[in-house]
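Hi all, a correction to my earlier message: I attached the wrong file for Serine/threonine-protein phosphatase 4 regulatory subunit 3. Here's the right sequence:
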Amino acid sequence: MSDTRRRVKVYTLNEDRQWDDRGTGHVSSTFVERLKGISLLVRAESDGSLLLESKISPNTAYQKQQDTLIVWSEAENYDLALSFQEKAGCDEIWEKICQVQGKDPALEITQDPIDESEEERFEEMPETSHLVELPPCELARLEEIADLVTSVLSSPIRREKLALALMSEGYMKKLLQLFQVCEDLDNREGLHHLYEIVRGVLFLNKAALFEVMFSDDCIMDVVGCLEYDPALVQPKRHREFLTKTAKFKEVIPITDSELRQKIHQTYRVQYIQDIILPTPSVFEENFLSTLTSFIFFNKVEIVSMLQEDEKFLTEVFAQLTDEATEDSKRRELVNFFKEFCAFSQTLQPQNRDAFFKTLANLGILPALEIVMGMDDLQVRAAATDIFSYLVEFSPSMVREFVMQEPQQTDDDVLLINVVIKQMICDSDPELGGAVQLMGLLRTLIDPENMLTPTNKTEKTEFLSFFYKYCMQVLTAPLLANTVDEKKSKALQEGSTKINPVCPDNFQTAQLLALILELLTFCVEHHTYHIKTYIMNKDLLRRILVLMNSKHTFLALCALRFMRRIIGQKDEYYNRYIIKGNLFEPVINTLLDNGTRYNLLNSAIIELFEFIKVEDVKSLIAHIIDNYYKALESIEYVQTFKGLKGRYEQEKDRQTLRLNRYRRDARTLDEDEEMWFHEDEDDDEGEAVEKSRPEEEFPESYGKYMEAKKVKESDDKENFPTQTPTGSFKFTFSHSAGAANGANGKPAASHAASASPNGSPAKSDATPGTLVVKTAMVGLVDYPDDEDEEEEDEEQSPRKRPRLGS
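and the right structure:
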């Protein structure tokens, strides 16, 4: 593999003018037959795959920036960059590019970018006409220089020529020396011209110029020039802020001078871009793209240098977690990590992964566990920001850490419980911190991001952990503020809206609303675990106490929780609601709300409308049986009448089904008897008419099912058995009433006898046995059954006449 000189990162510029990291590898220049020319090849250091294959075109403009960057455009809106680990490697490849194009390696750019509109004119004009001659760098010529800089901004060619002229013979440094002279003389006109010059030079968008302007010797003079905007009556005091107000704090002394200089430079350049320069217009956006890239690569370099300095980071962590560390020092350490993590957001995904893994290995999570439990509000706020970066980066990493904690610590100091307690104890009247922490908890318990291929059991293990160790901490404020016994007493005394148990404090109500939002999320996504918890703690009953709160938003949160439970259409939940009469507080709230047409009214109506539309039979029956008298007067919506209609339909359907069961049972008995008579007629050669009395059918569906089970048992008992001679033996058993005629005597000698308790008596080779020489014959179908069924549906008599013989 090539040495570190050739180690590079490949970047491409995306649509948002941000650099995307395409990977790290080793660059080489070689002839590629397919491309017919010398090309730049970058192969990934991880697997040797080809990251870049780019032919060095004679007409492509390559730029060398910051000694370790080579940037070029291969097509419209497709910019590429190679960031070298070492300057020597960058110089090597730059020489190769210049060799192919026949250029001097001393140049920072190999070609002059040509605007399409100017290309033709450029070919016709002599080369010297495009050279920009700068006036002598004198005080009296500042206006002329300012006009020249402003005039070239519209022409790409002239911008390039001006940039080359400014870089020659130290012209920029001479201009900045004139700034000091003008300021000493209080020459406002000259200072205004210098503002225009420096602003225009920044818009030339040249990295080589930035290297000069942002060096330690020049950057404060650049900031000084930008203070004198001609549009302002009084100059701004940016230098005073940077030197006196903004203080650079080294939480741990940084021994690397290059790193310190890079941090200072990046802060100041970022200040110039964000604070000093006006927001660029649509036409000026691309003018500062190189400035954005300059800051971006500086931040990447800072993070990389800090990350590689393990001694520095180890010392930071040691002091952060040391009990002897002073509070002011710990605050600075936490703020350092917060800034460090913020810088890391500029990194590309794979670099960010490596960054957070380094922090994890050094012990960032145990350290956060300590500092998040401290009394200092600033420390806790900064620690929360760091924790949010970690959760956003990898929820699985945080979950893995917290699941290992119970083996080595008490429940009270578990990281997630520390987060929950901080959420509960947020002193901000608007609960800004609590809202942020609730979002992080939601991310951690979301099953959608637990589907990692590396850990198939993560979802089951973590949810079991959460409900065992953390759920009681989360629901503690809810249970403490909803005492069901007091609620019942207050309702009995006639209290309707404001209940002593419900929190009147707005901040407490906000906190309970946040907790309810999280629990509602659990109902929707956790199914089994939350269902068990709700049943064991009778949680819904406690939550519905909040329907009496004077804070309508809290009552709506409680209602939304119940609505989500009913939305699961789970009969376990439905039975729990029915058994506890948990619609009562909801209906009381609806009635207390009266005729007011508001969100609370609409939300309650929607709950019942859902039950009606989804036809949740058990809940409909419960509501109509227990609450319809209170609801029937509500006629401005048809919801409750619709529920009543559903209830009646189901009742009719049950009645019809019961009658059909009765008819089917009677038909089966008659069919068996008729089949028996037909066989007897064949054997004896004479028809014997038998009559059957009317039967008393069971009064209820339950009694009918019992009778049906007895009959099915008897039918199995009386299944035909084969005799030793090869014939079949059938034993028919009827109920005691059916086996006797109207006069109470046996209807036929071949009917089965009945035992005293009404169950069939078994006999073997008795007059109740019929011997058949042929195979079993099916039951007879009667053609008039359909007519009889239609009549049965129209009228369902308790006693049915027997069929005529």
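Sorry for the mix-up. DSSP finds 33 helices and ten strands in the chain.
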